[in-house]
């Protein structure tokens, strides 16, 4: 169990808090494994009506712990990050995110799976995959163009242009922008409001809203995974990651 993932169950909401401040909540193997356990628990527990994932009012998630990620890939291990992506894809209940500060890589692509995203005004989003020698993941090659259009998706997902909370709101990636000190309270209120609603119609409507993309999403995620694993072994990726780690 990772010490960097905290969870609390209250009023029908399971709140997951990323708590690795010294690494800006970068996700390593143990954190991914714990996230998978909690997503499975939430899916299988009737009392949980909504899942809320958050950091704090200063930081959401700076993406993968690159040293851990590359070490696992070089050892030909099944990457825990991909297990988490599958858990995101297969999650059946309302999923809310509260975002502040950096949301990098998976810190942004996981938001594309959320039903609602509340962002603090200090949020900074970036998809730097090309710059480190890999490609889009977590179904972003399907979900991002659906959110923002193909041209904007290229700008954000391939060029890796950073964007702020107001731009994310305009692009339809987040539902609401608030002051950082209000973020966690607002997200909690939204999650609890959803949890009080009748479970069957909420989950049925959610399933219907996602039915068109769900039919192809797992196939897209599998293709992305194969390409990421291929690109991780290229000289460019190895060199780019080494320069970042040094």
UniProtKB/TrEMBL annotation:
The keyword Isomerase applies. It comes from the Bacteria. Its main location: other. It is found in: Peroxisome. Keywords: Isomerase, Peroxisome. Pfam families: ECH_1. It comes from Thalassotalea psychrophila. The keyword Heme does not apply. This is Enoyl-CoA hydratase-related protein.
């Amino acid at each position: 169990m990772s010490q960097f993932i905290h969870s609390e169950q209250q009023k029908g909401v399971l709140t997951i808090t990323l708590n690795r401040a010294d690494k800006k909540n970068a996700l390593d193997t143990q954190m991914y494994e714990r996230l998978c356990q909690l997503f499975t628990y939430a899916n299988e527990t009737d009392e949980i009506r909504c899942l809320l994932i958050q950091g704090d009012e200063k930081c959401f998630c700076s993406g993968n712990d690159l040293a851990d990620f590359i070490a696992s890939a070089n050892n030909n291990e099944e990457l825990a990050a991909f297990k988490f992506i599958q858990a995101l894809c297969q999650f059946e209940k309302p999923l809310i995110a509260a975002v502040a500060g950096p949301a990098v890589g998976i810190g942004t692509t996981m938001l594309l799976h959320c039903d609602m995203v509340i962002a603090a005004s200090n949020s900074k989003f970036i998809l730097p995959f090309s710059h480190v020698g890999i490609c889009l993941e977590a179904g972003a090659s399907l979900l991002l163009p659906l959110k923002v259009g193909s041209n904007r998706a290229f700008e954000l997902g391939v060029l890796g242009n950073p964007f702020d909370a107001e731009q994310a709101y305009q692009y339809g990636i987040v539902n609401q922008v608030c002051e950082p000190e209000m973020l966690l309270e607002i997200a909690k209120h939204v999650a609890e409001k959803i949890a009080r609603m009748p479970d069957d119609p909420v989950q049925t409507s959610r399933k219907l809203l996602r039915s068109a993309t769900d039919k192809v999403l797992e196939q897209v995620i599998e293709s992305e995974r194969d390409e990421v694993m291929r690109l991780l072994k290229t000289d460019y990726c190895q060199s780019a990651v080494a320069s970042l780690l040094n």
